[in-house]
Amino acid sequence: MTTRVLVVYASRYGSTMEVAEAVGDMLGDRGADVEVGVLAAKEATTSGVDIGSYGLVVVGSPVYAGKWLGDAIDFVKKHADALREVPVAIFSVGLTMKEDTPENRATMAEATKGITDIISPVATGMFAGKLDTKVLNLPMRMIIKAMKSPEGDFRNWDAIREWAEGLPLPAA
Ligand SMILES: Cc1cc2nc3c(=O)[nH]c(=O)nc-3n(C[C@H](O)[C@H](O)[C@H](O)COP(=O)(O)O)c2cc1C
């Protein structure tokens, strides 16, 4: 029997999508009988996925101004009842995690407060993200300038791999 895993992500500029794809690949590598689907949150919300058919659901979003993106929040809200019946792991991506400190983890946890009020994740990942100011529109660029955010790709693929490898995969 096959263990089915669904990885759902929101992403504005693609860096969280790439993290979701990597998590999906790593989960798929854990066994020949593990089947992984990676879906954008908007699609997952509207396409009527059968949450109950998955042995694990992973939901990830970048943090913008201290919050998850609306697409990821909408997915969790729409499928709240079904998500309470299966193991769900969540992950957040943000520049706050450039330094992995207890304080920064507490800040990142604030961003998922609304999510953890709805579901109780079996695992919570917090990863550093990527910022390329060239792709930002002017208002966003001004926010980033005011925040004096560091620019660059700070994603730590070893930390992401370690998290994905530790996720509980139910036996099929
Ligand atoms: C306007 C703006 C606001 C942001 N706010 C936060 C924030 O509050 N906390 C954080 O950790 N990262 C913040 N970030 C960084 C993003 O979370 C990071 O760049 C992430 O990798 C973007 O993901 P995406 O490429 O999937 O959209 C912000 C980035 C921008 C451009």
Description:
The chain has 8 helices and 8 strands, in the order βαβαββααβααββαβα. It has 172 residues and is of the alpha/beta class. It has a single domain (3-166), classed as 3-Layer(aba) Sandwich (Rossmann fold), CATH 3.40.50.360. The strands form 2 sheets. Strands 1, 2, 3, 4, 5 and 6 form a 6-stranded mixed β-sheet that branches. A two-stranded antiparallel sheet has the order 7-8. Helix 1 crosses helix 8. It is globular and about 50 Å long. The relative contact order is 0.19. The model has no long low-confidence stretch (mean pLDDT 95). The structure holds flavin mononucleotide (FMN). The site of flavin mononucleotide has 22 residues, from helix 1, strand 3, strand 5, strand 7 and helix 7. Flavin mononucleotide binds at residues 11-16, 62-66, 93-96, 129-131, 136, 140, 143-144.
Number of strands: 8
CATH superfamily: Flavodoxin domain
CATH-scheme architecture: 3-Layer(aba) Sandwich
**Count of discrete structural domains:** 1
Biggest sheet statistics: 6 strands, mixed
